Predict the 3D structure of the following.
Amino acid sequence: MASLFIDGKWASGTSGVTSQVINPFDQGLITEVDVADDVDVAQAILAARRTFDAGEWPGTSATERGALLNRVAELLQRDREEIARTETLNTGKAIREGRSDVDDVSAVFRYYAGLADKDAGRVVATGSATAISRIVYEPVGVCALISPWNYPLLQASWKVAPALAAGNTFVLKPAQVTPLTAIHLVRILAEAGLPQGVGNLLLGPGDRIGATLAESGEVDLVSFTGGGVAGRSIMRAAAGNVKKVALELGGKSPNIVFADADFETAVDYALTAAFLHSGQVCSAGCRAIVEDSIYDAFVAEVARRTELIRLGSGLDERTETGPLISAAHLAKVEGYVRIGQQEGARLVAGGSRPSDPELANGFFFRPTVFADCRREMRIVQEEIFGPVLTVEPFTTEDQAVALGNDTIYGLAGAVWTGDPGRGQRVAARLRHGTIWINDYHPYLPQAEWGGFKQSGIGRELGPTGLDEYREAKHIYQNIAPQPSRWFGS
């Protein structure tokens, strides 16, 4: 079945090349999809450019654009179970996570549906009775949307929904290993009535297609979620025509636990923070920073509960976490575990592949905990993006904050305490884009998401997430023009 969507039509790749989509649970073949070549990429960009410049979609009223986004949300819910199952097969995540993802994606489309017509700009005081000044917001133009493999549908929605709400056209390029729910989303967009050429879908390797999209003079904005190396490459390529860039590049998020926090709850959330989706979460709380008076007890209980985590097929309702995404990623995680041991960290849980023969064909790695970690260790500083939790002790509040900020990243973090004042103080001092107090992982479509430092540029979600896809224009009108006589006549 043709799996590229260009100028309102499903098409096979011009070259005839396909890519296998593998189930990480058992390496079974799910399907094959088309791979776009340079001709396909050029056609998709041209379709988006021509459609935007012709003005049908940008000229559509914001109310109509919002109505289409609401129809998309309804169709997502109609197909909820099918989409969740597809996401689980493709990524390995637990089916309950897949269902939650569909609900979150629906909420994102509903949010931007409601926001689409809420900001008509503003009137600016001119100080003159004969002049009118307005600020209006217009779409950026053609948007290249490049989404990652860990949350294929969710991260795509964070880009597609505001791009459409603002009146842009787009070319969506999901990760090569997890394209299936992006395909489903584009089918839903077409069913909901998205005009021809507004939304285009390309599949294939990110280094080639992403670079072409970022370099193209016909693309006005590129939004990328992924790794730092690829993000810097996108920035360099986009500099050629100084296009707008939005980047979300991951993190190394601290989870700070004070002794006055509720111990059982803090331990419970430490597991969720670190091991949700096998730690393949950009904001994973993979760095626990624990007050020394409860440090030993915390390590012991986290280690005990980590060993009880149930691994398995994401389609099994009993499964708590699934496999890693690929053999290459499994090898990367195993390499970091070896590094941690060489650096002198104390392995207290996991640290190896599971022995269960039913899991032998999958890319499984046991949730892992390292204690007695130090700030200079690579496993503390570098993003592993897998089920590896490091635990460090601290003594004072100042030390906890210093450790929490001791990272090149700044995406998210958390503080656990029974003292509301302390929670607010620490949250104010942490240099991360999202801070949770006595919680971990929730996000809201109406609240901005993004990072400080090397976690990226720009924000997704919230009103600012819509502004990323808009340009502000100042219109000044002299309603009673007269000769100025500035120069001699």
User: Anything to note?
Assistant: The two ends are 72 Å apart (CA to CA). The domain at 254-437 is CATH 3.40.309.10 (Aldehyde Dehydrogenase; Chain A, domain 2). The chain has a mean pLDDT of 97.
